[in-house]
Write a structure and sequence with these properties.
Elements lengths: L2 H8 L3 H9 L6 E2 L5 E2 L2 H15 L4 H8 L5 H12 L6 H13 L9 H15 L17 H25 L10 H26 L3 H5 L2 E4 L8 H15 L7 H14 L11 E4 L5 H23 L11 H14 L7 E3 L5 E3 L19 E5 L2 E12 L5 E2 L2 H12 L11 H10 L6 E5 L2 E10 L1 E4 L3 E4 L7 E10 L2
Antiparallel strand pairs: 1-2, 3-4, 5-6, 7-8, 8-14, 9-13, 10-11, 11-14, 12-13
């Protein structure tokens, strides 16, 4: 017989049957496909258990009866004594037990249905719940969407934590993160879940997502899970529930988990735990939306904080260089085999086997610094080319980086400031043009002159075919207000 048939014939709920299986009172065979196959003997044992539990005989006593270490008549005598102390519905239970005694039945030949029929009639006539079997199951939560949303919130928290590590420890630009990088991040978040979720369960019996939905996980004896027990459960969630987050396989596992939960079946990783839900009140959904809004706000703060340079206020040359290189790294700008050293000079890197190919004239400009009281007040660089046969690349990158390094160090630059984007727009929208603007108390000026060239894709100047001579000149300066 399959589970639905045994439910119908025994009159038991599936959770009760699963509970008695975990207790070892019923051990159905398994078919080749893994499904349980219940026999007539299994049905009779379940009916006997139901009868005796209806009479409030404990599972330990039933287990002793089943293995033959206790006699049914003796057990019933003990139960009669217990029932004498009850104030409601005791007399009928006593009569039932005495009737069973008079019949001199043993557990093995007990016709449970005969006595259950009488109990059912009494329950219908009096409306009593005394004979109902309660507590013979581990509490389980069969709310698939609440469980799923709680888990998604937890994983989002781990994603935020990893984003903070990427941002502040590795200086990775989160906005420009590649698709491959995003996929890697999801697997790292799952790895964090494997480590952190058991700790949450061990310390608090909940995770943040579960707490919002009033979900609580404990052992059957109402204690907190040990870390190893939580780890075992979390691994079950990741493997059987989430399919290791592998695309497509993940969706298959999620669907199967949803189907199990919808059918009030215990998930494989929850069979040995007590899973409770406090309530399903509407405000928990509002809390959930609020929690997600808070996570988005935190992520936005992390992204905005990346725009702040490591050094603020008055800058030394070394601090300016550190800011400059910070933004170059943040935006993924590679200067080939050179880097700006702490003195503000372009220096060749040690050869690492890499070959860098540049398009057009890419000579890096020499920065000039004006120092007052040990701090930089003015920065400038110039470029001049005569009769150059190559394309001329724009100097927007150097202008933007040096501008950000100085302007974003000022007190006007705060979290969520638009100063970086405004500076980048002013410079990049005026490639090979004169401009002057002010941001954060800093004046930016560029004077550009060229002849014999024509623009190509806005970022390059290409010598004209019939040009007799070519000329290019650029002077850029950054002046901090006194």
């Amino acid at each position: 017989m399959i589970i639905k048939e045994i439910e119908t014939l025994s009159g038991m709920e599936r959770a009760n049957i699963r509970f008695y299986e975990r207790e070892g009172l019923v051990i159905p065979k398994r078919k080749e496909n893994g499904y349980r196959d219940y026999s007539e003997d299994d049905l009779q044992i379940l009916l006997r258990i139901k009868l005796l539990r209806s009479l409030h005989i404990s599972l330990d006593e039933i287990r002793a009866l089943k293995d033959g270490s206790e006699d049914l008549a003796d057990t019933l005598s003990k139960q009669i004594t217990k029932l004498d102390q009850e104030k409601q519905d005791v007399s009928y239970a006593q009569d039932m037990c005495r009737a069973m005694q008079r019949d001199r039945v043993t557990f093995a030949d007990l016709d449970a249905k005969k006595y259950l029929d009488g109990i059912n009639r009494t329950m219908q006539e009096t409306g009593t719940s005394y004979f109902s079997v309660k507590g013979d199951e581990l509490p389980q939560v069969f709310h698939p969407w609440r469980r799923f949303l709680a888990r998604i919130l937890d994983i989002s928290i781990y994603n935020i934590l990893w984003s903070a590590v990427l941002s502040f420890a590795f200086n990775v630009n989160l906005v420009a993160r590649s698709n491959l990088g995003n996929i890697l991040d999801t697997f790292i978040a799952i790895a964090m879940m494997l480590v952190l979720e058991p700790l949450w369960l061990h310390l608090f019996c909940v995770t943040p997502g579960k707490a919002i939905f009033g979900l609580k996980i404990e052992t059957p004896d109402s204690r907190r899970l040990s870390y190893s027990e939580g780890l075992k459960r979390t691994w079950g969630v990741i493997s059987a529930g989430m399919g290791y987050n592998i695309p497509i396989y993940n969706l298959i596992r999620l669907w199967k988990s949803y189907k199990l939960c919808s059918e009030n079946e215990t998930q494989p990783w929850d069979e040995a735990i007590s899973y409770n839900i406090k309530d399903t009140k509407w405000y928990r959904g509002a809390f959930y939306i609020g929690a997600y809004a808070a996570l988005f706000a935190i992520l936005f703060m992390i992204i905005s904080a990346q725009q702040l340079p490591p050094n603020r206020g008055n800058l030394t040359v070394a601090e300016f260089v550190e800011n400059h290189n910070y933004y170059a790294n943040l935006f993924g700008i590679d200067f080939g085999n050179e880097y700006l050293d702490k003195n503000g000079k372009w220096t060749e890197k040690e050869f690492d086997g890499s070959v860098h190919i540049g398009i057009g004239h890419t000579e890096k400009p020499e920065y000039h610094f004006t120092i007052e009281n040990g701090h930089v007040t003015d920065i400038s660089f110039a470029a001049e080319l005569k009769n150059n046969k190559d394309w001329v690349s724009s100097y927007d990158t150097q202008m933007v980086l040096s501008s950000l390094a100085m302007a974003c160090a000022q007190k006007e630059m705060r979290l969520f400031s638009k100063i970086p984007s405004r500076i980048a727009d002013q410079i990049c929208n005026n490639t090979f043009k004169d401009f002057q603007f002010e941001e954060a108390g800093v004046m930016f000026t560029c004077d550009t002159e060229y002849s014999g060239y024509e623009t190509l894709q806005s970022d390059y100047l290409m010598p004209q075919k019939n040009a007799v001579e070519t000329y290019f000149s650029l002077n850029f300066s950054i002046n901090k207000s006194k």
